[in-house]
Records
---
Amino acid sequence: MSHSIEQRRVRFDSIEGLSREHLGTAGEIWLSDLCLAPWASREMMRLGAHLVGYMASPDPRLVKLQHIDAVIQVTREEIKTALRLMKLFGAAAAFSIDQDELRVALHLTSLQRLKILETVGRLDQLLRTVSPDTASNGQRWVPPPSICEEARDEASDNALRARLKRDSLQVRPAPLANAPERQASVFRPRP
């Protein structure tokens, strides 16, 4: 579900000096800086990662407060607190919560924009030096499933089930000779 930049619920307030192709890198650097900030809470980091994820794949359902609460377990009040702190420390320029929908203008500092340009330049340089034989042409490598691994996983699952069954059938040790006899149930009321 794609929509124009004006309809996006989360975006940077200014990308001056950058192009739209740099937005992925900008999100990574913004999130990295947020997570390294000494004032950032766990809830703020989770919310920041969720917002950057929305920017990479903008679906209006992702910024519904109920969805955010269900996915990252951050309540409405924790979201407000996190956004207030982001605004206070300059990570966000503005935000609004209208009914169940969140809108946020994230802020990139000048230093972050320089990091983005430097990172993009280094990445371009790296990609130019990679030989065509080792280039992936934009495709990501995913390891194929191995028959040996599947058999080993199944064998370990079967061994675990057998051990649990064996342990549950073990006879309890006999009581000590000097120990007083116990009643059948420890939860039986006393007379």
---
Amino acid sequence: MHNNIFEITWLPLWDCNFRCPYCLGWYNTNALKFQPLNTIIKMWDIFLGKIMTSETGVNLTISGGEPTIYPNIFQFLQHLINKHPNMHVSLCTNLSFNAAEFLNFNFPNDRISLNATFHPSCMSTESFAGNLILLKKYIPDHTVNFVADETNLKKQQHFIKSINDCGIKLNPLFFKSFRHDQETEYGNLEVLNSEDEINLVKKIKSEQNLASSDYESTKQSSFGKKCMAGYRYIHIFPNGNIRKCSMDSTYLGNIFDEDLNLYEKPQRCKQKICPHQYHNIIED
């Protein structure tokens, strides 16, 4: 097993309490909405029992949509870390939830982290910074993200300074468009930023000493390289379908059916662009 770690990204829902102009994910209705807490606990305990051993760790990333609007999500997190000691959970969130409610659970920050993204069109800088200060110890590397579309880049100087003043770095994410190819079952992703915007993103990263990858900017391709996706990494969608990654719709099972058909070894990537899970690529 690759470093004895199995990585999972789970989208429990598409729903979101924000309506960001650059995101249409919340339009998607292909989901089984809001499973009762006892149902998802049972489902995940059975599923994790298939892939975890005393020597195996699991890194679970819960995304969406906005996962914190899922009923009883914090109680679910509490169950996971109590039941499965070799597990770390990262919650991808817009940080709009009640920070006091989260803090009442007293989660250990080496077991639970918050992968936060700031959306200026839907949340004020002041509100975001207020929650950020309260939740700072749960923010990995004291870094949060924002989508580097044209509008956000025009306003970036003001809100980057406000976030930096909280002792937090603000990492720009390249603005991308996704199209799914029904014939090949593979996704096509295109960076929409202009050359000037790409250079500005790189400048923002450099000024804050943030690492940058050529996979993110599409300067480097994942095509043909071996990858852990489908072998030691999977992506689970709201309807329970298990895929090797967000870009490849090859069916590997369904978590509700307790079905799992993993690859027996790393496979070669068939995507031109790998924007998110490029750390799973095995460089030759």
---
Amino acid sequence: MINKYYLLISIFLYKSYKFLQRFFLKNPLYTTVFAVLYCIPLFRVKVSLLNEQDLCRQLMNGSSFVRFGDGEIGILLHEGSEDFQEYDKKLNASLKKLIEYRGSNLIVGVPTRFITLNKKELETKRTLLSRVWLPFKVYFLLYFNKKRKYADAHIFYQSKKAQQVLFPVFKNKTLLFVTDKQTKKDIESKMRSLFFVGIWVVGSSVNAALYCDEITRSIDEYLEKCSVPLSDIIIVTSNGMASKILVDYYLHTKLQVIDVGAGAHYFFTEEALDMLL
């Protein structure tokens, strides 16, 4: 029995050391607060939420939309993954600017259905959810503007809500659609049957942020030849972390950028991402 407890304590101390080694020097405040809140199972954050009608109204008025999830928080913590998005300084800087931006022409989406729950509530949904979303809850507590009203980052992952909120915004607009090859294949014909898509810009499905210069070059070349007013153009982007850089890049222009995330896959299906809903 003593050996068992010794082993458990050793594992705990080793994991604690690795955690501190990974994060403390990069962000001591975050690491300290995380360590404290990790021991408080009832911790949750309060989020002021935009309802669907107000979200649609703001999008109709030209506001851009950017989504934050666990991947974005990972980049902000100088982390990344080979199969999705490696750490990138330019991306990190864009994400920080978007969090700190105070203009009324930007809507920020956060995973409200997760970060407003405590550890026990998350674990009743899925065993690993409490570990996945605690970093976001801590980062939100420390760095996000609590006075701002946020949208649900996963609202477009449900076809009915996407059609109710987004499709009226797309009507009578020229859409510049940025996505990966598979998503384009899945939705192109239905999108063209309902809306005018000026161009499809195909980006990478892995490390998408690294190819943003090519994406913006394609968009800017199209805009140079296009006679449509910028206020009648919407960049719709479903291309991982590239979407965040695009929102940041065009935020101070008259162009509207809407980051729909993987929700583009679900525009025309009755499915939803079960793990998210």
---
Amino acid sequence: MKYLTHFLLFLLFPICTYGQAKILEISKFAAESPANERSIYLDLGKETAAKVIFNGSFTGKRLVLQNASNKHVVFDCTIRTTDLEHAIIISGDVQNLILESTGKEMTGGIGVWGSTRKLSISGFNIVAGKFGVHATAQKAHTGIQIYNNSFRNIQLEAIYWGYFQQITQKTQGISIIGNTFQNIGWDAIQIGNALDAEIYDNKIDRAGLRNEFGQDYAITINPGSRCFLYNNEILNTGNRVQCLESTMFETRK
């Protein structure tokens, strides 16, 4: 895909302190006209604030977060992008990133392009999109938490983390907890090459709606994984769980 780097941000930057940490509030951000053809690139490494809050309006194709290590990013705004594949992209390798939403509606998913260490994604209310959370590059990851998010009307996988074939790059420790899924075209959750993975307390209602072979499960564990499943509620879905060349332990609800 071709991403355009020329953009214009209209920003209001009130800086305040919370304890010793600075907080940057961004109350309006938009790509230059025509908005539906522009990505917004925001280099968080240039900001001294440890916490960044988006609390205004969003207009554009997608938001690309660069150099986002050691940041707490909060979206307190409705996000409606013209790219239903990725509304938000985490670009490059990151560590110690908290990505959080207050639950206002978002169209389009979250794409993770690089390696990650200590990443959490929580509180998002994704109401339409091609994917929900999407990280399928051949990259290594450590300490991933995806919890308390809502995914509805997703065309393909709602959470797709890891490569579909066994590779040397692994995810060491991923927790997928307390998420809700409704009307998912393919699998609600699909992970691969994930060691010490935990998937629990999720509610899945109507997954695999496109009835495509191999993509019509509530949960798929791809090769190279070791996964623990428990207390997941799966409703109105023909196929529950498939485990491919992996080790899985499940306690059914």
